[in-house]
Design goal:
The protein is α/β, with parallel strands linked by helices and 171 residues long. It has a single domain (3-138), classed as Protein tyrosine phosphatase superfamily (Protein-Tyrosine Phosphatase, Chain A), CATH 3.90.190.10. Helix content is 36%, strand content 18%. The strands form 2 sheets. The chain has a 5-stranded mixed sheet. Strand 6 and strand 7 form a beta hairpin. Helix 3 crosses helix 4 and helix 4 crosses helix 5. The longest helix has 21 residues, at 64-84. The N and C termini lie far apart (37 Å). The model is unreliable at 142-147 and 151-171 (pLDDT under 50).
Amino acid sequence: MNSNEVGEYFDPNTLSQITPSLIVTGENGAQHGKRNGHWFLINTASELYTHSNVKIPVFPFGEAYRVINYLDMIADVIKIEMEHDHSEKKQIVLFCAMGMERSVLAAAWYLAKHQGYTLESAYEHIHAIRPIACDRSWWVDQQISIDLDENRTWKLLEKDYPVNAAMNSTP
């Protein structure tokens, strides 16, 4: 069975454990666990009005810098929530309609921003766990060239874009 066939038979509502505290799933997978008091739900889909602790929509076809701003907010919320509750039971659950694009991009962004991955290696890691994950890094790279330099500053064209103070700490 090739990877396309695996993705074809993969239930989007499967809870995919990306890190010990980070899960990616589809809408129904997230709602199944909403009764779990140890889950912190982050909805990345603007069209979904289901229960979540935080809703930060990722708009795929907007201007890249706006997509980056929303992804930064999501990554920072994940980091803050993980630091706030050191319980082994605490799970941050990222979801969108199918858990294929927006929530996966947000998880990859978190791994790149706070866990030392490149965006490419983050997608490889996620895809190995969640075969239906689609690489949508071009949503942030469609209009601008992005690279994380040694000072942990995003390079957008020829301008520096300091992501935030949290980026200046080591992962």
